[in-house]
Amino acid sequence: MSCKTWMKMSQTDDYERLVGFFVENGLEFDGDEEVDTDIIRCYKVTAAEDKLAGGIVLAKREGRFIIDGIAVDSEYRKHKIGKIMLYKIIDVAREMGAKELYLVARAPEFFKKYDFVPVDADRAPNFFECKYCPQYRVTCHPEILKLTLE
Q: What is the pTM for the complete model shown?
């Protein structure tokens, strides 16, 4: 059976479910963000019985578009779900007039395949919580990335 016949991507308003999913899949969300975040759009990919296989959140901080979270459950990582969700969010951001799209990546090589480029932490917009975390650059080494949309 192909992935396309048994999985479904849909928009969701259940941000809290996605946050739980992100945490389960190794992303850090503390809920006490230093910078106000406006959630724009959330998508989930579900398998049988509404099991979350993937999720992604497009948001704005300080007027800039960001991917506020993206994860794929390890069971489904070979099905190109991350690529499909990423393309969807890029399309939505473009439709909304975004010129750039930022994210903090713990798996930067995935995003670099899709033309995201590193941004030096000292030159990045000051709206990512990572800088305030005591693990930043100690046990956690994410990269700030940017995609130019034109």
A: 0.87
Number of alpha carbons in the 13 Å side-chain half-sphere of residue 74: 3
Residue 65 CB burial class (10 angstroms; 0-12, 13-18, ≥19): buried
Distance separating the N- and C-terminal Cα atoms of the chain: 37
Give Cα 83 to chain centroid, integer Å.
11
- Model confidence over 34-61: pLDDT tens digits? 567 899 999 999 998 889 999 999 999 8
**Dihedrals phi, psi of 51, to nearest 5 degrees:** -70, 125
Q: Give the distance, in angstroms, between the CA of residue 4 and the centroid of all CA atoms in the same chain.
A: 21
| Sign of the four-CA dihedral 23, 26, 28, 30 | positive
Q: Which two tokens stand for residue 72?
A: 């794929």
Give the span between the Cα atoms of 141 and 52, in whole angstroms: 27
Secondary structure of residue 145 in the 3-state scheme? strand
> What stretches of 7-98 adopt beta strand conformation (E)?
8-12, 38-46, 52-61, 64-72
Nearest to 55 by CA among 94, 8, 5, 107: 8
